Amino acid sequence: MQRRNVVYSLIMEDTCSKVLMVQNLDNGRWSLPGGAVEMHETLAEAVVRETREETGLSIQVGELVGVSECIIEKRGEHVLFFTFFGEVTGGEQHITSPEEIGDIAWIDIDTAEQLMPLPSYKGGLKEIAARQAGITYVDEGTA
Is this model's pTM higher than 0.85 or not? Predict the structure, then answer.
């Protein structure tokens, strides 16, 4: 069984009432911006890259807000999902990968919770938004 790591960025408006989401063309589902971690890439580097590739936006990576996993037997994969707070620091919102992303939108947090493909966030996005805190993520470098 192959292990795969996937990262997502949870980017909220200042009022914490909307989150940035992307519509994935491969399955039509809405998700937070994110994707697979590449070889020799840290989780933080991957979430910055994936967010920029999908939305055109640059982000500062914040705390880790969720970790979940799924075994996908038909593909022989054990997938770990890591979700980080992200804060927009630059760029211009636009679809940079039209072959992968159908739309980018700021979506009301209640609607976002209904659109998420998996219940990956204990207490839901509203609880995360309310506390605006996660756990510290530290890249300890290469040894």
Answer: yes
